[in-house]
Amino acid sequence: MTSYECTLCGYVYDPQVGDLDNNIPAGTVFEDLPDDWTCPECGAGKEDFTPAE
Amino acid sequence: MTQDTLQHRAPFQAVKISEHVYWVGAIDWKIRDFHGYATERGTTYNAFLILADKITLIDTVKAPFMDEMMARIASVIDPAQIDYIISNHAEMDHSGALPAVIRAVKPEAVYASTMGVKALADHFHLDEAITPVKDGASLSLGNLHVSFYETRMLHWPDSMFTYLHEEAMLFSNDAFGMHLASSERFDDELDAPLLLQETEKYYANILLPFSHLVLRLQEKLDGLSLDIGMIAPDHGPIRRSGIAAVLENYARWARQAPAAKVLIVYDTMWESTARMARAIEEGVTAAGVMAKLMPLGASHRSEIATELLEAGALVVGSPTLNNNLYPTIADVLTYLRGLKRQNLVGAAFGSYGWSGEAMSQLNETLAAMKIELVSDGIKVKYVPDADALAHCYALGQQVAEAVLEKIRSHAS
Predict the structure, then answer these.
(1) Could you tell me which residues come within 8 angstroms of residue B372 by beta carbon, excluding any fewer than 6 positions away?
(2) Contacts of A42 in chain B (CB under 8 A)
(3) What ipTM was reported for this prediction?
(4) Which residues, numbered 140 to 199 in chain B, qualify as contacts with chain A under a Cβ-Cβ cut-off of 8 Å?
(5) Is residue B214 included in any domain, yes or no?
(6) Min Cα–Cα distance to chain A from B120, Å
(7) Among candidates B157, B210, B212 on the partner chain, residue whose Cβ is nearest the Cβ of A41
(8) pLDDT of A53
(9) Minimal CB count within 10 Å: which of A39, B15, B195, B344?
(10) Is A43–B212 a contact, with Cβ atoms under 8 angstroms apart?
């Protein structure tokens, strides 16, 4: 499972961790995040994320 | 709060900057260390009062300066008449006075970006509600109206611009600002080279890591075709002259092209690393490129960041102290690494006594900063001899040539 990094603020979405504060369970791959999911740190949309190195 | 309660304070005045807008900020003549940024000329915390049908305050000031701001407001209206407060930026130099101002004036509404609402909540844990505004939303002030434009991560998640249509005025939060205390309120009342220097320093130390967003923001501004007659930033003078020039400078700095300047940053214990630095400098200039030596102790990290903004190479020298980088060097590299200057070449050097770990630590750090190393670096045991200094001179030439090549390849 690929992690994705926010190009605005540097937050990394780790699918193994999910985003529990926003009801995204661990194991959710980035592609399956809802379209209106935003970076929990800076509010950037999914389009501002790139696969982490 | 009434004017009576302010009578024992200095007679601070609001400064009228357009038909409906007053500057009501505070001047901090004393600050010299702004979270690690050397502010040798102090700063201002700008707040603006729009005297529309709905009287609106844009941003506040750092908490200890609240009295100064309230006195300036009280010089034109009773602060209790304020209807709206807009928070363009949640950082405490602009929001520190916000909770107390809300309590004192009891505004009808307080507005911030979506992320601003969260950031203000995390700072102040307020009971009063803050109303989120969406990117591109407009707000009527009765006879005037404003629009909001999010500028996420320029330079915090909450940052936004407020644009006052009727006066073509852009309230730009920290963007286009500078740390400069002055009694003059407008850019054209101040020395132009000084303004450029402080604008450059501000960009280098605050906005540089978000350069890709600066370029994106400029596209967005171009797309909006806003008529910008005045830029009112949260620090430093209000810009009413040379607006095109500051936008051009921002675009140039954001592109981060390499320039024909080699920065040599070093510290030294017994002058050995310093002598190596001077030999490298001679090699750089012999190859026709400008060299700038920045010995730590004489150079603040924020000055080094400013010099790096328009440079092509970073060469770093450190002695090895107790199996590690010299602490001052670790400080400046940690700082520069966060600023993410792109398109640089570089090299490392330094003197050591026995183990010499500083060299590999420098190389690793420079590589992690995505600086292209032109060599493995030069380390010298104890004191450099003539041969070692000749190697340093050659390294200087090599770095200079790599910079010129980098400039050529970047331009093509």
Answers:
(1) B344, B345, B346, B402, B406
(2) 115, 152-153, 157
(3) 0.83
(4) 152-153, 157
(5) yes
(6) 13
(7) B157
(8) 72
(9) B15
(10) no
Same domain, B303 and B251: no
Question: Is B400 in contact with B284 (CB distance < 8 Å)?
Answer: yes
Q: Which residues of A touch B114 (CB under 8 A)?
A: 43
Give the Å distances, CA to CA, from B70 to B31, B83, B135, B315. 21, 15, 29, 49
The confidence band for B100, taking pLDDT boundaries of 50, 70 and 90, is very high
Residue B311 has pLDDT above 70, yes or no: yes
Q: What is the DSSP letter of B303?
A: H
Domain that holds residue B385: 262-406
User: Are B284 and B225 in a shared domain?
Assistant: no
Task: Indicate which residue of B8, B35, B122, B387 is catalytic.
Answer: B35
Q: Which of B89, B94, B179, B391 is catalytic?
A: B89
**Cα–Cα distance, B244 to B224 (Å, whole number):** 16
The SS3 call for residue B245 is helix
pTM of the predicted model over 0.90? yes
User: In terms of domains, do B29 and B69 share one?
Assistant: yes
Active-site hit among B202, B203, B352, B393 = B202
- As a whole number, the mean pLDDT across chain B is 96
pLDDT computed for residue B7 by the predictor: 55
- Summarize pLDDT for B383-410 with one digit per residue, the tens: 999 999 999 999 999 999 999 999 999 9
For the cut 50, the answer to whether the pLDDT of residue B114 exceeds it is yes
For position B2, what pLDDT does the model report?
Answer: 47
* pLDDT at position B1: 47
* CB atoms A8 and B213 under 8 Å: yes
Answer yes or no: is B412 within a domain: no
How do B84-87 and B109-113 pair as beta strands? parallel
Same domain, B234 and B269: no
Query: Domains in chain A and their CATH numbers?
Result: 4-51 (2.20.28.10)
**Catalytic residue chosen out of the listed positions B20, B94, B179, B235:** B235
Whether residue A7 lies within 8 A of chain B, CB to CB, comes out as yes
pLDDT at B93: 98
- Using CA atoms of A24, A30, A35, A37 in order, give the dihedral in degrees to the nearest 10: 40
Residue B251 shares a structural domain with residue B275? no
Measure Cα distances from B304 to B69, B201, B341 in Å. 34, 10, 12
Domain end (from B200, B232, B255): B255
Confirm whether B94 is a catalytic residue: no
Q: Which of B63, B70, B126 is nearest to B91 (CA)?
A: B63
Sheet of A49-51, strand order: A12-13, A4-6, A49-51
Average pLDDT rounded to a whole number, residues B213-234? 95
Of B152, B212, B213, the CB nearest to A43: B152
